[in-house]
Design goal:
Blueprint: H1 2-14, E1 26-28, E2 38-43, E3 49-54, H2 57-60, E4 64-69, E5 72-74, E6 76-79, E7 83-86, H3 89-95, H4 98-113, H5 117-120, H6 127-148, H7 157-166, H8 170-187, E8 196-199, H9 201-209, E9 218-224, H10 235-248, E10 277-280, E11 284-287, H11 296-299, H12 313-326, E12 336-340, E13 343-349, H13 359-363, H14 377-390, H15 393-397, E14 399-407, E15 413-422, H16 423-437, E16 446-448, E17 455-457, H17 468-473, H18 495-503, H19 508-521, H20 523-534, H21 547-557, H22 562-565, H23 569-591, H24 611-616, H25 618-637, H26 646-665, H27 674-685
Parallel strand pairs: 2-9, 7-8
Antiparallel strand pairs: 1-4, 2-3, 4-5, 6-9, 10-11, 12-13, 13-14, 14-15, 16-17
Helix pairs in contact: 1-12, 6-10, 14-16, 16-21, 19-21, 19-27, 21-27, 23-25, 23-26, 23-27
């Protein structure tokens, strides 16, 4: 990760962009939510608790705490709920259900507070919190005072805070905190989760036997009532503390080898110090590099940690500032964005522009995932390329740095993807990507407006590269329901696989791998979509605007263009099944009617019922189609009254004859490849050329024959 961030730091320096350099031991507070509040504790001059209040999420993100060791910090630290209560499994389930559950927990808490103090003290759930507070009020405070020693004025907030913190007693703090918290909860100004934690007997036993078993914790921040200008919980005070810490830091200089510079030409101070940590959205705390002696692969040759790669204090500061600048909230969708589960994507031009450019949003990565209808891949890609070209020759020729970080486990974060591309190659790749998603014929797929009940043609959209994995991993049952629920989720593909397909050339092997799995996972989806299309109905399937286009994209990357595969046997076999369904449906609309006059259409028509067989053994499936469709073909060829469907029957029989003639001269494969299976589905879903004037519409009022068989680019 260091190499990628050094390049970002160089780009920032060249663009005269400066970022605040936070001391590595000055850590951000945990994210504030309704279930994880942050409490400000106001202290009097003699170290007693005066009041408690909630800290807003806006203020919390501006505050930091000095944390030399994990879980030991000041002026902010974490505490457990005061009490742990055992409930049954059924009670816990009830308490987890929305507002009703919160109301139930509030009732339990009030009942518990009405019990005697001796009964409440039976389960001492604050023992570990007290141990931590002794270190916070003791060693952590002493270390922090050493940094600030001799440089604080008596009237300063930080100086007064140290005076008060020396007077604090842990047992007294717990007692006063408990009393104040109870009053606030009864008064309804603080949430009950701060007071009581509800568990099953089994969970309680696990927590008692294993100290690593997770338990809820909440963030608190100490403040002083008697301050002059700014309280402790104020950005100005935190900034002052950062200056004191940075000015008091003395790194031990250690040199290795012949030179006195590190790998990036900077000084070699503090080589043996720990690397700084940066808190990232979604991923949490991330260290820029971590190599430890306990790992044999890193220590077997006698070189580990600082000896493996020399990175001095100045280089570490530069990389830390660069990562913090890239992940700033205001640059969401520009320099960074959430690519997927536990993965962040970063992208920036090596020559940083003055204007905002939605680079990561173009790839499909954005934290809040808020894409407007007009934010299509084609429009965003064109906008980004145009902006980069319009910034001058230097920017147009600059390379784009792209890398992705993924949380591998609780402790490790890894760079899983890195590429640098030119603006010209990105333009070429994005154009090819859009053309690939348009590599399908015009489809007859329809959707329904839930308010009006009217159906309308689905407009195909280009899938965003980092979102492609969602559709490739999704597995579907033959009834159109998702199969990957709960723990059965498939994780074959990752967000960066879409970027590899976009930017890496050649990518035939990756495209073939994707198509093979996609045809397995999404077969149920396409079967349901085809059944609905054949019956001229709108299915409840989601993302109909993306799924067919993904088939076209993967076929395009394998060299199968629509102008070629639409003439091949697999595509024509799919069209043959569709025509059989159209004739079967017309037969039902004329000959099979219910008492209310509506057509009695079976759940599966004769063509779509053979789709699975057609994707496996086309010769056998076509033979079965001949047998099943014979009554309907004879009906269509006969002279019986067809009500107002005569024109449509003639139209579909004409196409039946034309496709039969084409299939007669083509060679059929014995077994279909994944590419040919995709072509079968596209052939079924494709629309047909517009009919002659004599062709009429069906009883639903929508045309059975759509505009054309191919899409115009």
């Amino acid at each position: 990760m260091i190499d990628e961030l050094v390049k970002a730091a160089d780009a920032m320096r060249n663009a005269d962009i400066s970022a605040k350099d936070w001391h590595p031991k000055l850590k951000t507070l945990p994210k504030v939510t309704a279930k994880a509040p942050c409490i400000r504790i106001w202290l009097t001059g003699d170290g007693h608790i005066h009041d408690l209040e909630l800290i807003s999420s806006e203020l919390a993100v501006q505050l930091r705490k000095y944390e030399p060791d994990l879980g030991r910090s000041l002026p902010g630290f974490n505490v457990r709920p005061l009490y742990r209560l055992v409930k049954t499994d059924d009670d816990i389930k009830k308490a987890s259900k929305g507002k009703a559950g919160e109301k139930l927990k509030a009732e339990w808490t009030k009942e518990f507070l009405n019990t005697s103090a001796d009964e409440r003290a039976n389960d001492d759930f604050w023992e570990k919190t007290r141990d931590g507070l002794r270190r916070c009020f003791g060693r952590v405070r002493e270390d922090l005072e050493k940094y600030c020693n001799g440089r604080l004025r008596e009237e300063e907030t930080i100086h007064k805070f140290f005076e008060i913190a020396r007077k604090m007693d842990v047992e007294q703090f717990q007692e006063e905190y408990s009393i104040k918290l109870q009053d606030k909860i009864v008064g309804g100004t603080l949430p009950v989760v701060l007071m009581c934690y509800f568990v099953t007997a089994e969970k309680k036993q696990k927590e008692d036997s294993d100290s690593r078993e997770p338990v809820p914790k909440f963030s608190v921040f100490l403040d002083i009532k008697d301050y002059k200008k700014y309280p402790v919980a104020h950005p100005k005070t935190i900034e002052r503390l950062n200056i004191l810490l940075s000015g008091g830091e003395t790194g031990q200089v250690s040199n290795f080898g012949d030179g006195d510079t590190d790998a990036y030409g900077m000084d070699t101070a503090a080589l043996n110090e720990k690397f700084p940590e940066v808190t990232l959205p979604l991923l949490g705390g991330v260290k820029l590099r971590s190599q430890v002696k306990v790992v044999p692969a890193q220590s077997r040759y006698g070189f580990c940690e600082a000896q493996t790669f020399h990175v001095g204090a100045e280089s570490r500061k530069r990389t830390k500032r660069a990562l913090e600048w890239l992940k700033a909230p205001e640059r969401d969708g520009e320099t960074y964005g959430i690519a997927g589960d536990k993965e962040l994507l970063f992208a920036y031009p090596s020559v940083l522009p003055n204007k905002k450019i939605s680079l990561t949003k173009m790839f499909g990565a954005q934290q809040d995932d808020s894409y407007q209808k007009e934010d299509s891949f084609k429009r965003l890609a064109a906008s980004v390329i145009e902006q980069l070209k319009g910034l001058g020759t230097e920017n147009a020729k600059a390379e784009l740095e792209i890398f992705s970080l993924r949380k591998m486990d609780k402790a490790r974060t890894k760079v899983v993807y890195y590429r640098n591309v030119t603006v010209a190659s990105l333009e070429q790749a994005s154009t090819a990507w859009h053309r690939g998603c348009q590599n399908i014929p015009l489809l007859a797929v329809r959707d329904k407006n839930e308010k009006t009940g009217k159906s309308y043609p689905v407009e195909e959209q280009t899938v965003f590269p980092v979102k492609l994995y969602r559709y490739l991993n999704a597995t579907w049952k033959h009834n159109g329901q998702r199969a990957d629920t709960g723990k059965s989720k498939v994780k074959i593909f990752t967000p960066t696989d879409g970027l590899r397909l976009l930017l890496d050339r050649p990518n035939n092997a990756l495209a073939a791998h994707m198509l093979s799995h996609f045809m397995q996972h999404a077969q149920g989806y396409f079967l349901t979509l085809c059944r609905g299309t054949g019956k001229n109905e709108s299915t409840s399937l989601p993302d109909k605007e993306y799924y067919p286009g993904i088939l076209g994209l993967l076929l395009f990357n394998l060299g199968n263009k629509k102008e070629d595969f639409m003439k091949e046997s697999a595509f024509l076999l799919g069209r043959c099944l569709r025509i059989a369904d159209e004739i079967h449906r017309l037969y039902c609309e004329v000959e099979r009617k219910k008492k209310d006059g509506k057509p009695d259409i079976p759940p599966e028509l004769c063509g779509s019922s053979l789709l699975v067989g057609m994707t496996e053994f086309p010769t056998m499936a076509l033979d079965q189609l001949r047998i099943r469709s014979m009554p309907y073909i004879k009906w269509a060829q006969g002279g019986r009254d067809k009500e107002d469907k005569g024109g449509l029957v003639h139209y579909w029989m004409k196409h039946w004859s034309a496709i039969a003639d084409q299939l007669h001269v083509l060679e059929w494969p014995k077994r279909l490849t994944p590419e040919e299976r995709a072509q079968v589905f596209l052939g079924y879903l494709a629309s047909f050329p517009k009919s002659e004037k004599s062709t009429t519409t069906d009883q639903t009022g929508s045309d059975n024959t759509t505009e054309q068989g191919e899409k115009n680019e």
